[in-house]
Amino acid sequence: MNPILSEIFSSPWLISTERSAAYASVLLSLIKGENISEGDSSLARERNRPFVLAGSGDQKQRFGFSDSNIPGGSVAVIPIRSEILKYDQPCGPRGTQSLLNDVKAADQNPNISSMVLVVDSPGGQVAGTDLLAEAIKNSSTPIVAFIDGLAASAAYWIISGATKIIASSDLDRIGSIGTMLMVEDLKPALEHLGVKFHEVYASLSTDKNKDFNQVLDGNYDQYRKNVLDVINTKFLSTVKSNRANLDDSTLTGKIYFAPQAIELGLIDQIGTLEQAIEEAFTMAETSREQSIENETKKTETMKMKITWKAIQNFFKMDPTSLDSQELTDERVQQINDQLATVTSRNEELEKLLSNEKSAHAKTLADLETLRGEDAGSETVAPKGADKLPGGNADDQPVFAHDKIADEYCA
Fold this sequence. Notes:
It contains 14 helices and 13 strands. The protein is α/β, with parallel strands linked by helices. The protein folds into two domains: 3-287, Alpha-Beta Complex (2-enoyl-CoA Hydratase, Chain A, domain 1); 329-377. The strands form three sheets. Strands 2, 3, 4, 5, 7, 8, 9, 10 and 11 form a nine-stranded mixed beta sheet that branches. Strands 1-6 form a two-stranded antiparallel sheet. It is elongated and about 165 Å long. The N and C termini lie far apart (151 Å).
């Protein structure tokens, strides 16, 4: 069975009504037993294959998404086309699981610095949509979403978290933010053909399929409340969180042409795919510069932590007694006050030391003076006046203590 039709029959959708109505003819063909051929799908598969661009201007090189020689600063291009389902389709469109892997792989590749999502989709299945949208929102690699015709419902949910959203034309349509269930009740037609239906439930399975069976009976309230409203609440809250300037009037399911979508905050501008790719390369360069700046700040922060540790040790601060282990403005002021106290004390000590040096110099000067005075007070006497036996009258004068010694010897 066609996988898209299988999902239509079994799950709620986030899709524009115009596209879902187009399945009526397909369903009619199935009822009539006619063969539905999907034709040659090789072209569709090629158009939905992701790739990588590197270089500048018209000299860009194209690489496979898994090539090992992708240059640094490259841009990953990821198409999101046709109906969105959780799993890959034989006819070409890739499912949200594969798209999620593409986004994560590009985000983790150090040589890919930005991404471009090329979108032309009416929306699709709920399952997997929120996870892909979350990956795009949380990507550390900047992402440009380029709308190439239509971005409705699930498709808009997915790209709402992109760094920038660009439409290709005034006639591009954006929005359809809402949730729906389309049920094609084939039971009457099959019963007309003689088919009988029997549903048997376990004794305790009293609520199994209850809401859905009420839908088949024409009572939609419980399914709307228990399923559609829950999905829609998540859808709306995500989009409002991702698009800060989004007008609340866009959240009722209406779809808009690109100029009005800009006014309402759904998208950012109108441009070409080439402009979207150049914007992605510009974002890549900005991201690289920001990364360098963040690394510098990280280094400075580390140096500051080391400095703060040295300051703690210098002032003999007990880390367990500190309100914060960070060098806050309040802590800086406290340190400045302590430094001022230490500086004042150092100035006092310098003054005392200067006084001590002056006193020491004066003491040395006084000592030299006393030595001079002592030397000047010594007396001499002629040897003739204090002649020892055997001495000569022409002997040189001697100091007084020699005279005393001579007298003692005499």
